[in-house]
Design brief:
About 80% of the residues lie in helices and about 0% in strands. By secondary structure, the protein is an all-alpha fold.
C-alpha cells in the first residue's frame, strides 16, 4: 500500500515538473513574434467569425470577468467559446503552425501580452493619479446629502469593481512588460487591424 502511494506521488510530481516550465515560460522575443505572426494568419478566420454570433457579448463578459473575478483573459475566453465550434480545428491548426502546441498556449501568451500592454498604458497615464481621482470621487459621493444610502452602496460597488478591473488588466510581471515594450507599436497595429 505504501509503495503504491509513493508511486502515485512520484507520478504526480513528474507531471507537475513537466508542466511547470510550460506555465513559467518567459515571454521571449520568439514567443511574441510567433504570436504576432499567428494574428496575421488568423485574420481570414476572424472575418469568418464576424459573420457568426459565436462570441455574442464577449466584450461585456471580459469586462465583467476583470471586474468581478479579478481576471483579464480575453484570449483564453475566446478559445473557450470556440472549443465546440466547427472552426476550432482550423484555429488549432493555424496556431500550431506557429509553434503553439494547443490553442490554450496561444491564448495564455496573448493574454500575457495584453496585460503587459494594459500595464504600460496605465503607467503612462499614471495609475496612481487615476486611483486618487476615483478616491476623490468616492469622497464627494459620500459627502453629498442628495445621494441616498442605496445609491451610495451601488456607486461604491461600481467603483470597487472598476478598481478591480483596472488591477486585473494591469496585473503583469515586470519581465512581461519589458519583453513586450519593443513590440508595442506592432502589437497595437495588429490589434487594430
Amino acid at each position: 500500500m505504501m509503495i503504491r502511494a509513493l508511486n502515485t506521488f512520484c507520478a504526480a510530481l513528474v507531471l507537475l515538473l513537466v508542466a511547470l516550465p510550460a506555465m513559467a515560460q518567459p515571454l521571449s522575443d520568439d514567443r511574441i513574434e510567433r504570436f504576432l505572426a499567428s494574428l496575421e494568419d488568423l485574420e481570414s478566420l476572424g472575418e469568418q467569425v464576424e459573420n457568426t454570433d459565436m462570441f455574442g457579448d464577449m466584450g461585456q463578459e471580459i469586462q465583467e470577468q476583470a471586474m468581478r473575478k479579478g481576471e483579464f483573459r480575453p484570449m483564453r475566453m475566446m478559445v473557450e467559446k470556440m472549443r465546440d465550434h466547427e472552426m476550432h480545428d482550423e484555429f488549432a491548426a493555424a496556431v500550431s503552425d506557429h509553434g503553439f502546441q494547443r490553442p490554450e498556449d496561444w491564448a495564455d501568451t496573448g493574454d500575457r501580452i495584453m496585460r503587459a500592454m494594459a500595464a504600460m498604458e496605465l503607467k503612462k497615464h499614471n495609475r496612481g493619479d487615476m486611483q486618487a481621482e476615483m478616491g476623490a470621487m468616492m469622497e464627494q459621493m459620500e459627502n453629498n446629502p442628495n445621494i441616498s444610502e442605496q445609491q451610495r452602496k451601488r456607486m461604491r460597488q461600481q467603483m470597487e469593481q472598476a478598481m478591480a478591473g483596472m488591477k486585473a488588466m494591469a496585473d503583469a510581471p515586470e519581465e512581461d512588460i519589458e519583453a513586450v515594450r519593443p513590440y508595442r507599436d506592432r502589437i497595437r497595429g495588429a490589434m487594430n487591424d
